[in-house]
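I'll show one example:
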Amino acid sequence: MFLFGIVELLIILLVAVVPLVLLIALAVVVTRNRRAPGTAPPGTPSLVERSATLRKRSDHYREERSRILGMVDQGTISPAEADRLFETLDRETTTMACPFCGGEIRVEARKCKHCRQYLVQEMHGSRRLTKSSDKVLAGVCGGLARYFGLDPALVRVLTALVIFFSGILTGLLVYLVAALVIPAE
């Protein structure tokens, strides 16, 4: 009878717990090695560099506009020619070519509407899955909520449901493994 209980426990561990632990370990490795959503490819300018470029374009626009208005005042060009120059100037200073696909996009865009590449690196670098300081037990649910952009209460309720329906021991073991594997902030 005792031997049957041990064999049953080993079967439960092999069938339910080991695959879940391996799946969580695989998910953690994949999330650490891939580029997080919302980050720019290597070589894209930082937000500070991008702001400096936008400031230079704005200064250039003001200088050219005042130069064109001065030419109209002097009678060098007609108002119709000035309007055509203003249209060209507006197009030059408000649009640019995407460095990845060459499509025309607005200068202040952070993401290309054609190829969906990010044009600016975020200030914080890449997004990582970490435990949250807003925690109830170990911070796993808060970290998952922040990573996926969800409400922490919703993630906690879903985690409780998953733990309950997957078998309480299995669910708690998975949570414990996640608490040990996921790094702190």
Notes: The chain is about 60% helix and 5% strand. The chain has two domains: 16-36+127-181, 38-125. The first strand starts at residue 95 and ends at 97. The beta strands are 95-97, 104-106.
